[in-house]
Amino acid sequence: MTAMRRFLANGWLSAYAFLYVVFLYLPVIFLPIFSVNTAATPKFPLSGFTLKWYEDLPRTPALLDAAWNSLVVGVSAAILSTVLGILAARSITRYRYPGRRAINGLIMAPLVLPEIIVAISLLLVILQLGLSLSLFTVVLGHVLVSIPYSMTVLTAGFEGFDRSLEEASADLGESAFGTFRRVTLPMVAPAIISSLLVCFTISLDEFLIAFFLTGTEATLPIYIWGQLRFASKLPGVLALGTLLLAASFLLMTVAEILRRHAAKRTQNEGGLYA
Q1: pLDDT tens digits along 47-81
Q2: Cα–Cα distance between 57 and 126 in angstroms, integer?
Q3: Is residue 36 within 8 Å of residue 49, measured between CB atoms?
Q4: What pTM did the predictor assign?
């Protein structure tokens, strides 16, 4: 009887997981399908196959400007978030001090706060400081929402690190900074690269923060939102959305592979299970 209950429970869980994945990703599957349709309206049956909408993308100056802006914002936000994430993850995993858990909770707060509340709050603070809305303010907002993801990846890389390696380096006469640069960072390098990719992907796809904090220079999500007001622009939006979807999937896959490699490397070369 107990075995039957477990079988039924596992079956229901598997069915629920399958239905959840279908509900979540089925609409996304239609994006690349309609992006190669010859008709301008997304409907079945498809009128024919064409790559015209993809070919038109490089010939759109506004799109190229938005792509460049997203690249600048994404790279800047990824680097800043990862640097700050390294410092925070190192502090939280290495040292014990009063308020450590509270500080960690504050850093992770953007994950649970409504993003629109965070965006409006950032807008009010920036305006009170007298700053003009620009790509710089978008970078600041993206750093705020990307740091929790960076912390999650980097904390996993630092947690299994064996402190005896740093102690051995110090015994050999290396300075604290030299030990960190030559011993610690190489060990967690896959986690750092993974953090960069994750933060760049978060910044690339982020809309609400950019919507409230951008000035006259639009990023790709803002450009897409603007194009949705025109029915004739919809096929190009579908093509661009497909490319962004593929890029995000590729970056997140590489980031996950590197994260697992970092965790395995830390365990095998001086981690808790070495």
Answers
A1: 777 788 788 788 888 888 888 998 999 999 999 99
A2: 34
A3: yes
A4: 0.77
